[in-house]
Amino acid sequence: MNIPTPHINAKAGDFAKTVLMPGDPKRAEHIAKNFLTDVRLVTDVRGMLGFTGTYKGQKISVMGSGMGVPSIGIYAYELYNFYDVENIIRIGTCGAASDKLKVLDIIASVGASYDTAFATQYNLPGTFSAAATFSLLKTIDETAQSLNIPVIFGNTVTCDSFYAERAAIPAWATMGILAAEMETAGLYMTASAAGKNAASLLSVADNMFSGETTDIDTREKSLNDMAILALEAGIKL
After folding, report:
1. Distances (CA, A) of 82 to 93, 105, 165
2. DSSP state of 11
3. Are strands 50-55 and 212-213 parallel, antiparallel or unpaired?
4. What are phi and psi of 89, to 5 degrees?
5. What average pLDDT does range 86-109 have in this prediction?
6. Active-site annotation holds for 141
7. Could you write out the three-class secondary structure of 91-110?
8. Which long-range contacts (CB under 8 A, 24 or more apart) does 164-171 make?
9. Environment class of residue 211 by beta-carbon count within 10 Å: exposed (0-12), middle (13-18) or buried (19+)?
10. Are residues 156 and 113 in contact, defined by beta-carbon separation less than 8 angstroms?
11. Could you give the C-alpha distances from 202 to 42, 83, 117, 225, 235, in angstroms and in order?
12. Who has the most CB within 10 Å: 58, 76, 96, 127?
């Protein structure tokens, strides 16, 4: 496929080797305008905004992924295969699947179980294990420690349905799953198929066991901390 693609209208070289991917394109815009310098909009097809700028002198990009595995699957595929992106770090929210977690805790998804048919496209003779790239997790861990930002490492689950997943969370919790969300497994599968790198950082937005939830302003502060962690880790890759 030539570039621009049907979903990204950037030119060759517009993206950095590392891309941060929040789900919300407006959050991508917020990160770009508040944390990057020399920022420019590189794609805006269907309102899915992508920006490239510099952070501490290093080129880095941030782009929305949209909601759900199909959406992040499209954007990650095109970034990896047509724009020479090597690393994608998802920065999103999740619902806690453990009563030991508090709202605003940051989780690094080591492995992503899934309730989605996305893996069927690979025609595998078994069940694929969707896992993060170890080198990215190692860099995130070292960076988090240096910044004194607590991060919990563990397994999460990716679901296709936002509302139905709530009923399934207690069952996933019995297997030690920390949280549920809607994109990570799709990102990890796409990265594996492309031979590229991926990791997912998730901020706990609510906990069905405790009834805790967050308002928009509080959630934004947590996402800012997560963005800084991802940026600091990203420039080391």
Report:
1. 27, 34, 33
2. P
3. unpaired
4. -115, 110
5. 94
6. no
7. EEEEEECCCCCCCCCEEEEE
8. 165/95, 165/115, 166/95, 166/208, 168/115, 169/95, 169/97, 169/208, 170/97
9. exposed
10. yes
11. 25, 25, 22, 11, 19
12. 76
Please check whether residue 120 is in contact with residue 51, taking contact to mean a CB–CB distance below 8 angstroms. no
**pLDDT, tens digit, for every residue of 134-192?**
999 999 999 999 999 999 999 999 999 888 767 788 899 999 999 999 999 999 999 99
Instruction: Tally the residues of the chain.
Output: 237
**CA atoms of 74 and 8, how far apart (whole Å):** 10
**pTM score, whole prediction:** 0.96
Place of tokens 């929305």: 64
Token duo for residue 201: 């950082």
Alpha carbons 216 and 203: distance in angstroms, whole number:
13
Largest Cα span, the chain: 50
Q: Is the peptide bond before 6 cis (omega within 30 degrees of 0)?
A: no
Looking at 24, 141, 160, 206, which residue is catalytic? Answer: 206
DSSP classification of residue 224: H
**Angstrom distance (rounded) from CA 212 to CA 209:** 8
Task: Return the structure tokens found at 4.
Answer: 């621009």
